[in-house]
Amino acid sequence: MTSDLMGSQSPHALIQTVIISYGEGHHDAPRGDALRVDARPLRNPPEDPTMRDRMLHSTGLDPEVRAYVLSSPGAERLIDRSTRRALALLGQARAGRRVDLHVVCGGGRHRSVAVAEEVAERLRAAGYGVETEHPHIARPILRWHPQLTEHELTALRLLASGQHHLEVAKELKVQPETAGRLLHRAQIHLRARTLYEAVAQGCALGIIDPELPGYPHRRSAPPAP
């Protein structure tokens, strides 16, 4: 059964757990005591240039989005740990007392929804009545702004122009090790797995000019710092 908040409900007459997904960026977190589950470290479809166009108008209720999120490194560990903690609390709860979960991500459309539904399924399989609510699922996708320093962004732009990290170091008048650290931190801020992906992410976010010569139009990835 689907609720007005685009969630799901168990067929059980007694609801023992309500799982609410939400987006931290909306500054409208659910209230009340609850077990908090942080889905933000998982892969986010709108931030992946290879998936963004296909999943831009989808949500965590869509099978493709759910499979993408749940295949993230650490997703199974997060879901298993959250389910076990909820089961432990439910086992100790007094009759009639609910154990709720609040699952957070950035915008409340993809990661938190997928994780909330997966945990709900596992709790239902254990015999508990569970209802899910997704109050932010229809909200617009929030534009993500990575917090790069000026030096980190400059280093990444130089790399995008086709310069090797030694040339980046020379241009910035720093040691090669420092240039490598700047590029590595930029990669982390952009939540990218490689420097090539970091540049592509920068282009997608509009912080790197996609018309720069050399990158990302080159076929090969940049040399690692």
Automatic annotation (TrEMBL):
**Sorted alphabetically, which Gene3D superfamilies does this protein's record hold?**
Winged helix-like DNA-binding domain superfamily/Winged helix DNA-binding domain (1.10.10.10)
**Could you tell me which residue ranges the RapZ C-terminal domain spans?**
18-137
Organism domain of life? Bacteria
**Pfam families on file:** PapZ_C
InterPro entries given in the database record: RapZ-like, RapZ_C, Sig_transdc_resp-reg_C-effctor, WH-like_DNA-bd_sf
Under PANTHER family, the record lists: RNASE ADAPTER PROTEIN RAPZ
Report what the protein is called. Answer: RapZ C-terminal domain-containing protein
Q: Which organism is it from?
A: Streptomyces tremellae
